[in-house]
Amino acid sequence: MQHFKTLSSYFNYLGLPRPEHPMFSVFNSKGEDYLPCPRESSPPITNDCYTISFKKFIEGDLNYGRTKYDFTNGVLFFIAPRQVLQWDSSAVFEQKGFSLNFHEDFLKGTELAQRIKKYGFFSYSTNEALHLSPREEKQLESIIDNIEIEYQNNQDAFSKEIIISQLDTLLKYANRFYERQFINRKELSNDLLEQFNIYLSDYFESGQLEDNGIPSIEQIANQMSVSKRYLSDTLKKETGKTSTEHLQLHLIDVAKNNLLQPNKTISQVAYELGFEYPPYFSRLFKKKEGISPKEYRKKYKLN
User: The HTH araC/xylS-type domain covers which part of the protein (predicted)?
Assistant: First the structure.
């Protein structure tokens, strides 16, 4: 897989104009202008850069994730360094909006260098982008205008500090808008929880649990066509519990039924649930239920 270590080499591959700054670039369409279009298709690639792009799709129809959206309102994408990127000609549209691209080293020595890693939306798949209202668009566009002014001006001792300050503000607004999106998309959240539970039920009933062990959250998320981080964040917002907690609760529910079968030992129940070490199962059960598996059996007068 091809990897690009610099912003310039990445732009050269995309067929975009060379950036004014070796580690930072901003494209901002205004009036009748469109964003410059990158190459029409690409095999999987990676790079060492962050990308924040806000785009309005002017031509073409696109189902975004599992839902069809109105693209006359914009969508905001976040891409972290070393995320695998791939696209084909069906995804190329004439676009308006803005695109920020900056090398991870641009943030070195700043507080934002660590803080940016805590924003979950950089881990989301592209079908989980942020959909902005017109008011939210205007708030971000004003920030981009300030960044562009500094980018186009002659660089001085304050330029980088001002750009990073504006970038920090943009990310804080994006975080606020994502909170709003999670609240407004309860129907999708409920759908994800239902899909999550159906997948686990099918996995358990098919015998895969005993053969392959407990499925990872990433494995479940892949089957649901969402990212691991987005699945956990969405379930957390809707239910107060992460995807890992929901998986554990599902395991405990199955364990309760199995423990009530007197012909099975506690170790057998643990192994059947995919636990390699029975003591770990016992600790998890006690943590979730307040009593050990042995005490649970005793409570129901089973030996």
Answer: 194-299
